[in-house]
Write a structure and sequence with these properties.
69 residues; alpha+beta; Rhinovirus 14, subunit 4; 20% helix; elongated
Length: 69
């Protein structure tokens, strides 16, 4: 590796808006994020599928009960 072209690498703390702190290494000293794996609905299982236009119902009505033989 060439000298002088790589950024400094620090021990850092990533802080989320929910209060979760993650210790890691990065090129920035302190990182603040709005959402993390601790509070994101996809990872917590609290995500809800909203079918406001009825697309899922229309799809199931049209293709849901058909079987290929």
């Amino acid at each position: 590796m060439r000298e002088g072209i790589h950024p400094d690498y620090f021990e850092t703390t990533v802080r989320c808006a929910c209060g979760n702190e993650i210790n890691t290494r990065a090129t920035k000293k302190d990182i603040r994020v709005e959402i993390c794996s601790n509070c994101h609905p996809l990872y917590t299982g609290k995500q809800k599928v909203m079918d406001t236009e009825g697309r899922i119902d229309r799809f199931m009505k049209k293709y849901g009960n058909k079987r290929k033989y």
